[in-house]
Specification:
This protein is an all-alpha fold.
Length: 244
């Protein structure tokens, strides 16, 4: 039985979280003294919420350190040693889809889109579009790592394509698209998929994990923008009757 020290280094995590939250607390207290003058019960509830936030962030970051990062890197390192290395491309697609489908921030965005559009844009449609977009980005990342393609042409070409698609998409989808890029790069993607990519690059001969393993999150931020803009084009065509 493998022993995993779940509390190993948690003191450093607690200190990091306190350092992250402390400036916000100080800023609020100054604003409270100078102008806000909120009632005492509100302040008490606020600090209860901050304490819960602190506990949650500590548990999350500790979980990332002892689970997501090592698991992603280990899976990537193993996959990089497979005889049929091309299988990483469809496997990356599957991982990207499942990771985004489980991303809490993506679910929040989908709910907000459906609510704000009064059901005109279905949340499930956005969810699947984002999941397919991220899945495609992970596949592209695997292609780049496996065959040594440079990073810049992918990312520059992708954003130029986004600027072109903006001219043809439904305007309602432009803001959603660019928000989707940020939301898709949530904790699930950053902690697991980035570690997976670094593990793959580290295990393949001739690849540098520092140069080739990073850049995956940039792809993940880009492809949801493209998929939502394309979805907006389809909606616009339906509006104008070009697509029956």
């Amino acid at each position: 039985m493998i022993y995993i020290p779940i509390a190993d280094g948690i003191d450093h995590v607690i200190l990091d979280v306190i350092q992250a939250l402390l400036p916000l607390v100080v800023f609020f207290l100054i604003a409270q003294l100078v102008s806000l003058k909120l009632p005492g019960q509100y302040i008490l509830n606020l600090f209860k919420g901050l304490f819960i936030t602190l506990i949650g962030m500590v548990l999350f970051f500790q979980g990332v350190k002892i689970a997501f990062l090592p698991a992603g890197q280990s899976i990537g390192a193993y996959c990089g040693t497979l005889e049929h290395i091309w299988i990483l491309i469809p496997f990356g697609f599957l991982l990207g889809f499942l990771t985004t489908f489980a991303e809490p921030a993506v679910r929040v965005l989908c709910y907000q889109v459906e609510t704000s559009s009064n059901g005109y844009i279905k949340g499930t449609l956005i969810l699947y579009a984002l999941s397919i977009g991220v899945a495609t980005s992970v596949s592209l990342g695997m292609v780049r790592i496996l065959y040594g393609f440079p990073f810049l042409p992918f990312i520059i070409g992708g954003y130029l394509l986004a600027l072109i698609l903006i001219q043809f998409t439904d305007h309602d989808f432009i803001g959603i698209a660019f928000d989707s890029g940020g939301v898709a790069t949530g904790p699930m993607a950053v902690t697991f998929l980035m570690a997976f990519a670094v593990g793959v690059a580290d295990s393949i001969g001739g690849r540098d994990p520092f140069l080739d393993g990073f850049g995956m999150i940039a792809f993940i931020a880009l492809t949801p923008i493209l998929t939502i803009l394309i979805l907006g084009i389809i909606f616009k065509m339906k509006k104008t009757g070009e697509l029956s």
